[in-house]
Automatic annotation (TrEMBL):
Taxon lineage: Bacteria, Pseudomonadati, Pseudomonadota, Alphaproteobacteria, Rhodospirillales
Protein name: Aryl-alcohol dehydrogenase-like predicted oxidoreductase
Residue intervals of the NADP-dependent oxidoreductase domain: 16-313
InterPro entries xref list: Aldo-Keto_reductase (IPR050791), NAD(P)_OxRdtase_dom_sf (IPR036812), NADP_OxRdtase_dom (IPR023210)
GO CC annotations on file: cytoplasm
Length: 336
């Protein structure tokens, strides 16, 4: 496994991380045994970084990871410090699963962390971060509260998620920030304008989620799947004419992948990897076959000609539709 660093102040980690959200219902039903087997296979392959959120399945995802790490199969080959657990907190949900706001107040930091430690059955979290900027709470207060948990030994490092350049600068004035988790892919390149240069100026790594745009540019998605009722049913990029346009981009990318002798998913992941050694893609695999395909991207070397061909197939800002519905976009400090 290739290694990359989580920023100037953070630890070394694997060049790919495993995003675990899809194992807890966000993309439709998942198989518990296969999810745990995928977690084990990822760690066996050298994946160090496991990403979750305390609101994924209302705690289900954390408990699933806790079970996987406590499983005898894991214990025979690995120990707790062989993985880095990254946790997002702050998103509020009701019993029906609806999103009802954010709370990143100092009290919420302490309370959420206490429950997270219990669900994961660990004594510390490697990277802890608010899922979004809480508009009611200055970022200095949120980061300061997590910094107190660092001092107390419950957290090792602080990260942020989906915040803009100004917020990043305010945050690092309080405590070092090791990484910014944010969407970045061939069809989500907004961070290249201000956020990525700011991260590089401040020594902050990017942990990129959505590198396959929730499966849209994986090469496996088709219009019939778009009739489902999971998260993607509400995504503008998966709707109507937008979907037709975006799948045409995927077919253009497929031609580049075929010429290279790799899959569409592998070339899309390899493109993100090629954008800098300070970028760590998070792979949302919830099955071992999809994990193996994603790991194959590490063996793909893209030449200048390959990168130019990819750019022609999927030009910057060519995707149709926003990456979240309007209310979701409005909650993103990174989009302001």
């Amino acid at each position: 496994m290739l290694r990359r660093n989580l920023g100037a102040e953070g630890p070394a980690t694997s060049a790919l991380g495993l995003g675990c959200m899809g194992m807890s219902g966000m993309y439709g039903p998942s198989d518990r045994a296969e999810s745990i087997a995928t977690l084990h296979a990822a760690v066996d392959a050298g994946v160090v970084l496991l990403d979750t959120g305390d609101f994924y399945g209302m705690g289900h995802n954390e408990m699933l990871i806790g079970d996987a790490l406590a499983d005898a199969g894991f214990a025979r080959g690995h120990k707790r410090d062989d993985v880095q657990i990254s946790v997002k907190f702050g998103a509020l949900r009701d019993p029906a699963g609806s999103w009802v706001g954010y709370d990143a107040s100092p009290a919420a930091v302490r309370n959420s962390l206490a429950y997270t430690l219990q669900r994961l059955r660990v004594d510390h979290i490697d990277i802890y971060r608010p899922a979004r900027l809480d508009p009611r709470v200055p970022i200095e207060e949120t980061v300061g509260a997590i910094a107190d948990m660092v001092k107390a030994g419950y957290v090792r490092h602080i990260g942020l998620s989906e915040v803009g350049a100004e917020t990043l600068r305010r945050a690092v004035a309080v405590h070092p920030i090791v990484d910014l988790q944010i969407e970045y892919s061939l069809i989500s390149r907004g961070i290249e304008r201000d956020i990525l240069p700011t991260c590089r100026d401040l020594g902050i790594a990017i942990t990129a989620y959505g590198v396959l745009s929730r499966g849209l540019i994986s090469g496996h998605w088709n219009k019939d799947q778009g009739k489902g009722v999971d998260f993607r049913a509400h995504s503008p990029r998966f709707q109507g004419d937008n979907l037709d346009h975006n799948l045409a981009l995927v077919e253009a990318l497929r031609q580049v992948a075929v010429a290279k002798g790799v899959s569409v998913a592998q070339i899309a992941i390899a493109w993100v990897l090629a954008q800098g050694t300070d970028i760590i893609p998070l792979i949302g695999a919830r099955r071992r076959d999809r994990l193996a395909e994603a790991l194959g991207a590490l063996d793909v070397t893209l030449s200048p000609d390959d990168l130019a061909a990819i750019e022609r197939a999927v030009p910057k800002d060519s995707a149709a539709g926003d990456r979240y519905p309007a209310h979701g976009m409005a909650s993103l400090d990174s989009e302001r």
